[in-house]
Design brief:
- Strand 17 and strand 18 form a beta hairpin.
- It is elongated and about 60 Å long.
- The relative contact order is 0.13.
- The protein folds into two domains: 126 residues, no CATH class; 304 residues, monomeric porin ompg (Porin), CATH 2.40.160.
- The protein starts with 5 loop residues before the first strand and ends with a strand.
- The strands form six sheets. It has an eleven-stranded antiparallel beta barrel with strand order 10-12-13-15-16-19-20-22-23-25-26. It has a four-stranded antiparallel beta sheet with strand order 4-5-8-7, covered by helices on one side. Strands 3-9-6 form a three-stranded antiparallel beta sheet, with no helix packed on it.
- The longest helix has 14 residues.
- It has 450 residues and is mainly beta.
- 4% of the residues lie in helices and 53% in strands.
- Bound molecules: copper (II) ion.
- The site of copper (II) ion (CU) has 4 residues, from loops.
- InterPro entries: FApF.
- Pfam families: Phenol_MetA_deg.
- This is Transporter.
C-alpha cells in the first residue's frame, strides 16, 4: 500500500500519502485508519452535493502538502511529482474517472464532473487513486516499473498515457560471421566453388532514434528513424580480400499503437505501422570489379518500398513478474525503383521478466523470425559473381534467445527514464544459402518520457 500515491477523502478523513514528497493530510484523526486510497462520497441528494463541494473547499484549509487548491469542481495539488497517477476502476462508475486525473504543469488535477451535476443519486462511490509508477496496482497494467517496458530489442511494446512524450535512442550492433546453407555452416572455400567472391563477415550498426506521443490513453503514436552503418568483408577465389561499407539514414517508420484491452493487469494493443522508403537502395563502393560499383542487396540501407508493419502486442504483469508477446509483420508494397522488393517478414517474440527491486529487472526472450527471398532483381548485379547478389539466396528462418536487463529510475528528476540492454544469440538458423549467418545482436537503449 505504501507504493500508492493515495488520495482519501470522505468528508471525514482526508489522507494523502506520497513517499517521495511526503504529502500527508488529514482532517479528522478519528477515522485515519480507514482504508487508505479509498475515497468515499456519501451523497443522497443535491444537498449532499453541496456538502461535498464545501468539503472539497475545506481541504484548502488543511495541511495537504506541498500545496493544493480547490476551485469549482477540481482538486489541484501543486508540484505533484507523479506523472502517472491513475484511478483504479474497480466498482467505480466511469463518470467519476473519465476526467481525472489530469496534469498541467506538474499539477495533479482531479476533476469531479458530477459535482456540477444536479443528479447525483447513488449512495456511495468509492474512488481509488493510485500511482501508475508504482507496483501492485490492481487492475491496470503499469509501465512504471523496471519491466514496464519490454526487453529493449522489442519495438512498439508499450503505449503511454494521454499527453506523454517519450524519446528513445537505441544502439544495435549485429555481427554476422561465416556462411550457412540450410541449417549447416559452410566454409568460405565451399562458397568459392560456386562463386567468384564470398562474403566472409559483416557488421551492422544501427542508431535508432524514436519518439512517442500519446494522443490519448488508448492511442500512442510512434516514429522511428534509423541510421545504419554496414561493413562487409569479402574473400575472392584468388585469395584476395576486400571490404565494402555503406551508411545512411534508413527507412523511417510511423506506427499507431491502439489499445484494445486493459484489464486485470493485462493489455493488448494493435501495432499499425507504415515504413517509408527513405533509405538508399543505390549504395556504391569500390570492389575488385571496379571503382564505385553498385553494392549487393544486404549492403543497401533501405527497402525502396512502402512497407506495412501490422502487429499485435500482449502484455501481462503480476507482482514482481511480467510477460508479453508480440507478433509483427513486414509487408512490402509494390516494387522499388530498382525492380525488386525485399522479402516479407514475420516475427514472433515472447518474453518473461522479473523485477528484483524498483529499479532493476531481468528478461528472457524468444524471438522467431522468418523472412522471404527477394522478388525481382536489380539488373546491375550479377548473381553468378557473389551470393549476396542472388535474390534467391536471401530468405531464412531464425530463432534467437535474448537475455535482457532493464534499469529504471523510480524517482527524482530523472524519474521514468530507462537504460536497458539485450543480448541475443541464435538457437536455430536455417538460411537459403550460402548466406551470411547472424551470430549475435546487442541492443542498448536509453528512454526518457515526460
Ligand atoms: Cu514509449
Amino acid at each position: 500500500m505504501n507504493n500508492y500515491y493515495s488520495l482519501l477523502f470522505g468528508g471525514i478523513t482526508v489522507f494523502i500519502f506520497n513517499l517521495s514528497d511526503v504529502v500527508y493530510a488529514e482532517t479528522n484523526s478519528a477515522n485515519e485508519h480507514q482504508t487508505m486510497s479509498t475515497v468515499q462520497q456519501q451523497k443522497r441528494n443535491n444537498q449532499n452535493q453541496h456538502q461535498l463541494k464545501s468539503k472539497l473547499s475545506n481541504l484548502s484549509n488543511q495541511q495537504i502538502q506541498p500545496s493544493h487548491s480547490i476551485s469549482a469542481n477540481r482538486l489541484i495539488v501543486n508540484s505533484y511529482s507523479s506523472k502517472h497517477l491513475q484511478p483504479i476502476n474497480n466498482n467505480i462508475p466511469t463518470e467519476y474517472i473519465t476526467q481525472f486525473p489530469d496534469f498541467e504543469d506538474q499539477k495533479f488535477i482531479a476533476t469531479f464532473p458530477s459535482l456540477s451535476d444536479n443528479d447525483i443519486s447513488s449512495n456511495t462511490t468509492n474512488l481509488i487513486i493510485a500511482d501508475g509508477d508504482h507496483q501492485n496496482i490492481p487492475g491496470k497494467w503499469s509501465a512504471g516499473r523496471p519491466d514496464g517496458h519490454a526487453p529493449i530489442g522489442v519495438m512498439g511494446d508499450h503505449s503511454h498515457k494521454k499527453g506523454e512524450f517519450m524519446f528513445s535512442y537505441r544502439y544495435m550492433l549485429m555481427e554476422m560471421n561465416g556462411n550457412r546453407s540450410g541449417t549447416n555452416s559452410i566454409s568460405d572455400a565451399e562458397v568459392l566453388q560456386d562463386f567468384m567472391v564470398t562474403p566472409a563477415k559483416m557488421t551492422m550498426q544501427m542508431h535508432m532514434f524514436g519518439g512517442m506521443y500519446a494522443v490519448d490513453d488508448n492511442l500512442t503514436l510512434m516514429a522511428m528513424v534509423p541510421y545504419v552503418v554496414k561493413e562487409m568483408d569479402h574473400i575472392t577465389r584468388s585469395g584476395a580480400s576486400f571490404t565494402t561499407t555503406s551508411e545512411g539514414f534508413g527507412d523511417i517508420s510511423t506506427t499507431a499503437l491502439y489499445k484494445i484491452l486493459d484489464q486485470n493487469q493485462q493489455s493488448i494493443h494493435l501495432n499499425l505501422g507504415v515504413s517509408f522508403p527513405i533509405g538508399s537502395i543505390n549504395e556504391r563502393d569500390n570492389t575488385p570489379a571496379g571503382a564505385n560499383q553498385i553494392l549487393p542487396y544486404p549492403m543497401q540501407i533501405g527497402s525502396g518500398t512502402f512497407d506495412l508493419l501490422p502487429g499485435i502486442t500482449y502484455l501481462g504483469q503480476s507482482g514482481e513478474n511480467s510477460w508479453g508477446s508480440q507478433l509483427l509483420a513486414t509487408v512490402r508494397l509494390g516494387e522499388n525503383d530498382n525492380s525488386y522488393k525485399l522479402g516479407d517478414q514475420l516475427q514472433l517474440s515472447a518474453w518473461v521478466a522479473r523485477n528484483w527491486n524498483n529499479w532493476l529487472a531481468n528478461s528472457i526472450r524468444l524471438k522467431g523470425r522468418t523472412w522471404g527471398n527477394i522478388n525481382g532483381a536489380d539488373s546491375r548485379l550479377n548473381p553468378a559473381m557473389i551470393p549476396t547478389a542472388d535474390p534467391n539466396l536471401r530468405g531464412g528462418t531464425q530463432l534467437d534467445l535474448g537475455i535482457g536487463l532493464n534499469l529504471y529510475v523510480p524517482e527524482g528528476d530523472l524519474k521514468g527514464s530507462r537504460l536497458a540492454l539485450e543480448f541475443e544469440l541464435p538457437l536455430y538458423r536455417s538460411l537459403n544459402g550460402p548466406q551470411l549467418e547472424s551470430d549475435w545482436l546487442l541492443t542498448i537503449g536509453l528512454q526518457t518520457s515526460f
